[in-house]
Amino acid sequence: MLRALALALTVLLSPDAPATAASDAEARGLTIAREADARDSGWVDQRATLEMVLRNRHGQASTRLLEISTLEMDGDGDRSLTVFKSPRDIAGTAFLSYTHALVPDDQWLYLPALKRVKRIASANKSGPFVGSEFAYEDLSSSEVEKYAYRWLRDETLEGRTAFVLEEYPQYEHSGYTRRVVWLDQEMQQPLQVEFYDRKNALLKTLTVHDYRQYEDRWWRPARMLMINHQTGKSTELRWLDYRFGNGLGERDFDQNTLKRSR
Prior knowledge:
The chain is α+β, with helices and mostly antiparallel strands. It is built from 3 helices and 15 strands. The chain has helices at 2-13, 17-39, 255-260, and strands at residues 45-55, 61-71, 79-86, 94-98, 106-111, 116-119, 147-157, 160-169, 178-184, 190-196, 202-209, 212-214, 218-220, 223-228, 234-244. The strands form 2 sheets. A 13-stranded antiparallel sheet has the order 6-5-4-3-2-1-15-14-11-10-9-8-7. A two-stranded antiparallel ribbon has the order 12-13. It is globular and about 60 Å long. The termini are far apart.
C-alpha cells in the first residue's frame, strides 16, 4: 500500500507528468473524433428539406425554406448543394460547397438577381451565411484533420452522457480560436457546440435536438439552434425530412448545377 502511494506521488510530482497528461488527453480526443467520423460514414448521399428561422435580438422572426443535397466523397470532404425555395426575394439562391481537410474549402454562391456565380474567398469563410448566425465554415463537413483535439472530461448533458472535447482549427482563415463540443457517447453525434472568436471570447452556442435514427444506422437531428451571445440574434434549423440513397453523383454538384437550381 505504502509502496503504491509512493509510486503515485512520484508520478504526480515528476516534471513530465503534466506533459504526459496533456498528451494523453490529445490522443484520446483524436481517437474519439475518429470513431465518431467512422460511425457516420457510408451513407453515400442525402437530401433534406428544412426551415431556417432567423430571429433578431427583439425576437422578431423571418422564415426561409431550403433544400439541401449532400454527397459523401472518398478521400475528401463532403460536397453539398443548398437551394433556397422561399421567400420570393431569395428563392433560387444556391450555395455549393466542396469541403477539404486542410486546404481551403471551395465554395460558390449563385445569386439569381445577378444571374452569376460568386466564389466565396477563403478569408470570408467566417462571415455570416445569407444573414444567418451560421458562418460559411459552419456549413462544411467536419473532417477529422481540420482540427486538433483534446479530451476535457465526460459529462452528462440533459440526461445523456457525453464526451467533452476541445477542438482547435488547423485550417487558415477560421473565425474561431477553438470549439468545445459535447459529443453523445451512444450516438457519436454532437449535442452542443460552443464557438470562441479570435479573441477567445464565447461567440455562439449551437444546441442540437430530437435525434432520430435512419436506415437503422445514421442519427440525424430534427432541430438545431444557433445563438449568438454577442448580438442577441439566433438562427433555428428545423429539418422536415431526410432521404438517403437518391442516386446522386458528382455531376449533381458542379457550378452548372448552381444555375439550374430552382
